[in-house]
Write a structure and sequence with these properties.
799 residues, alpha+beta, 5-stranded mixed beta sheet, 5-stranded antiparallel beta sheet, globular
Length: 799
């Protein structure tokens, strides 16, 4: 008996020793791996990289910029359906364990023992995954697993379960560039989290184990199997009924990848300008990781109209110069679709499509259309064949067999007739258009060239070009603001200036080479008379004109020489359009902007374009006070009466002058053409009461557009086409007449007051500057008499 007692005493002592040794060893391991653990408390103020989202003026998404596509949402904003899907797939005991799940570990050991040689099941809880994703590396080692478990225990003692789950659901990588559940829901299904169905939520919960293993297109069967496994776990855990689960498993996997591209709104140039401005203002890190919400000024409808008007104008000019041929060829036999799909197509020239000529005769060309790429990267199997009838290539001025050959890779545009296409070619000429609100400077549309995909160079903001005669209104506006009237007389006769030294004699000419003698300022602007403009600039003084050009933001420092009065300086389309906008709004300075407001990731406004103060807008309650009012403290760059006078004169440009093609719009418009020497640049800049529009056309490497090319022939029609679309179904708004402005009926040729029923126009005069009250019969006034009589009717006199 004593022997038995001693034996058990020995066993107990040995077991105690082993237990103490094991406990000591365990404590040592804990102590060793607890050294230099990352500071888990930093997660309290964690700000993950969040993508910046850029919106159009109507709230539609324009572009996204991110290194990691992520939208951060608090756990309170996540639906229970989604949370239950992730808990079932990843950690069903999440809300009951302390960071380490013994049940999960045991289950993983048994499963891995049974499935020796195959992929092993992990036992990491969601808390451990947060520890690994945020604070540790992804290396596979026992040391990392121990440190992961230790950090998980600390996380559980520091943060609530909801906070840990929030960190997890916003951080995990879910494939195809998506981080976090909010971004994944948008990009996989085009939905917010609350709109997800049961099979969609289950598929998202299937992705953390390996997004590439469950690719929705390349590994569709595996994706569906894993999704259905998640649904089964949700049923087992009581989150959904078995009937709902079976119904969800029977549904197909309907992933529709969301395409976010400025090209959807034909706004590549606009979006790129916004991106550059944000990067310059806040830096690249803030742009790509700061989660900014940017509300731009873009009007999507006007942007599409502007893009089409410019595109049509450039194509119209280019096709008038004939077919240049194609430099791309593929074999038209066999599977031509695969070879054609490899050719890069500029996405922003749609609806144009790449096509290969299969065969051709003089009646039609049979073409194969480039197959589209499916979301998974494959090309569609169906081969679409169409025809180009001879009449749809008539602009080439050649027979089809002289124009096209089998194997030619061309552009083709669908027509209204099914299966028929129109032959197109990429224009060599380029151009730009800007549309802005003249009262606020908000840029409503911007097109910087024919194709942003082809060239990111923005001709609206980066191209420095000569504005030509479109600068003349600012010469005349300077004169009107300094004593002249629209009826002041200037002589349209030859002009010479000895420039001294080897420069010789400068002899500017009118377009066409003719002279009109003494004429009113209105005639000079309507008919774009160079010689009248030079004489007026000489009298007013180029230093003063240079000062006004700076006020309007056209030039920073204009060289004060007479040639600059004809638009020989260089500026941009955006600057010119903004300057015309200041004339349209009555002379207030505007600062063009692409951005209305920027908010940080927390919703705080960090930039706002509108700097006007609203007095009374912050009242707590209504107490019979005056209505709130906006205080406009913007600088006046010109007298509002002078601005109205030049506007009225530019109405005449449209009605009787160099831009009569614009009359087809049928609304009240003002504007000015601009054609430079040798027609290297053609412009039209104009406005309605509430829209200012600038159009430019020219080659990137300046060369003549043609011996007889004019702005009225090429630039003005683009403006016309845009305004017809933009002002359709809108009332005709007249330009606002400033208080105290005198409107007088005068003879158009002489500027003298005339009676009712005679050939006359309504002219605007400032108080005390109008013509004499005595009516003059224009038929009794000769050319010289008209000029002499006009000397007393205006302050400009005879020059």
């Amino acid at each position: 008996m004593r022997l038995i007692f001693r034996f058990f005493a020995f066993l107990f002592a040995g077991a105690s020793f082993v237990g103490l040794f094991a406990a000591g060893a365990f404590a040592f391991v804990i102590w060793k791996f607890s050294q230099d653990l990352p500071d888990h408390a930093q997660l309290q103020n964690y700000e993950p990289p969040v993508m910046t989202r850029v919106h159009a003026g109507d709230g539609g998404l324009l572009a996204e910029y991110a290194k990691e596509r992520r939208l951060y949402l608090p756990i309170q904003a996540m639906p229970r359906l989604l949370i239950s899907a992730y808990l079932s797939a990843e950690d069903k005991n999440f809300y009951t364990h302390n960071g380490i799940d013994p049940e999960g570990i045991a289950r993983a050991v048994v499963t891995n023992f049974r499935n020796r040689g195959s992929r092993q099941q992990g036992a990491s809880t969601i808390t451990q995954q947060v520890a690994k994703n945020f604070l540790l590396s992804g290396e596979q080692s026992y040391e990392r697993k121990i440190r992961e478990a230790l950090i998980a225990l600390k996380l559980e003692s520091t943060f609530s379960k909801d906070k840990i789950l929030e960190l997890y659901l916003n951080e995990i990588y879910l494939g195809l560039g998506n981080y976090g559940v909010a971004a994944a829901a948008l990009n996989y299904f085009g939905k917010s989290l609350h709109e997800l169905t049961l099979p969609e939520a289950a598929y998202m919960a299937a992705l953390p184990k390996g997004p590439n293993n469950y690719h929705p297109f390349e590994k569709r069967d595996a994706a569906i199997t894993r999704r259905n496994w998640v649904i089964d776990r949700m049923v087992d855990n009581g989150f959904v009924s078995r009937a709902d689960g079976e119904k969800a498993k029977a549904e197909p996997l309907t992933v529709s990848l969301r395409a976010v591209s400025p090209n959807l709104l034909n706004a590549g140039f606009f979006a790129e300008e916004v991106r550059r401005e944000i990067a310059e203002r806040y830096g690249s890190k803030k742009l790509y990781e700061g989660g900014l919400s940017v509300r731009t000024t873009l009007d999507p409808k006007l942007q599409i109209m502007a893009r089409k008007a410019l595109m049509d104008g450039l194509v119209r000019y280019d096709e008038a110069r004939g077919w240049r041929g194609t430099d791309k060829r593929i074999s038209p036999s066999g599977d031509w679709g695969a070879a054609l799909a490899a050719e890069p197509l500029y996405n922003d020239v749609q609806p144009w499509r790449f096509a290969v000529v299969l065969d051709v005769n003089d009646q039609q060309a049979r073409i194969g259309i480039q197959p589209r790429r499916l979301p998974g990267g494959q090309i569609e199997r169906e081969r679409v064949v169409g025809v180009i009838p001879a009449e749809n290539a008539r602009w080439t001025r050649k027979r089809l067999t002289q124009t096209l050959s089998p194997g030619d890779v061309i552009y083709a545009e669908p027509t209204d007739k099914p299966g028929q296409f129109r032959l197109r070619q990429f224009p060599e000429v380029s151009g730009a258009m800007v549309v802005l609100d003249p009262h606020t400077g908000r840029i409503l549309a911007m097109v910087g060239g024919f194709s942003f995909d082809q060239s990111e160079f923005n001709r609206a903001t980066q191209a420095m070009r000569q504005p030509g005669s479109s600068f003349k209104p600012f010469v005349y506006a300077t004169a009107l603001d300094n004593g002249y009237t629209p009826s002041s007389i200037v002589v349209d006769e030859p002009f010479e200036l000895d420039q001294g030294g080897s420069l010789g004699i400068w002899r500017p000419e009118n377009y066409g080479g003719d002279f009109a003698g003494p004429r009113t300022l209105r005639y000079g602007i309507e008919q774009s008379r160079n010689l009248m403009t030079i004489r007026l600039a000489r009298d007013v003084g180029m230093p003063l004109i240079a000062e006004y050009s700076k006020r309007f933001g056209i030039y920073d420092d204009l060289l004060p020489v007479l040639a600059m009065a004809l638009g020989a300086g260089e500026t941009t389309v955006l600057r010119m359009t903004a300057a015309y906008g200041m004339l349209a709004n009555g002379g207030r300075r505007i600062k063009p902007t692409l951005i209305d407001r920027i908010q940080d990731r927390y919703g705080a406004t960090i930039f706002k374009h509108d700097e006007r103060n609203c007095e009374g807008c912050q009242a707590d309650r209504w107490a019979d006070q005056d209505e709130p009012s906006l205080i406009d403290r913007r600088e006046r760059v010109i007298d509002p009466m002078s601005a109205y006078q030049i506007t009225s004169m530019m109405e005449g440009v449209v009605q009787r002058g160099t831009a009569t093609v614009v009359k087809a719009v049928g609304k009240t418009l003002a504007g000015k053409t601009g054609t430079t020497n040798e027609a290297k640049d053609v412009w039209f800049v104009g406005y309605s009461a509430d829209l200012a529009v600038g159009v430019f056309m020219g080659y990137d490497k300046p060369r003549s557009l043609g011996d007889s090319a004019t702005a009225g022939q090429y630039a003005a029609p683009i403006f016309r086409d845009f305004m017809i679309a933009a002002l359709k179904d809108k009332p005709d708004v007249k330009f606002r007449v400033p208080p105290q402005m005198k409107l007088v009926r005068v003879n158009r040729a002489t500027g003298l007051r005339v009676g009712p029923g005679e050939d006359a126009i309504i002219e605007a005069f400032k108080p005390g500057t109008g013509p004499p009250d005595t009516f003059v019969n224009p038929s009794t006034v000769g050319r010289t008499g008209g000029a002499a009589g006009a000397i007393t009717s205006g302050t400009g006199g005879l020059y």
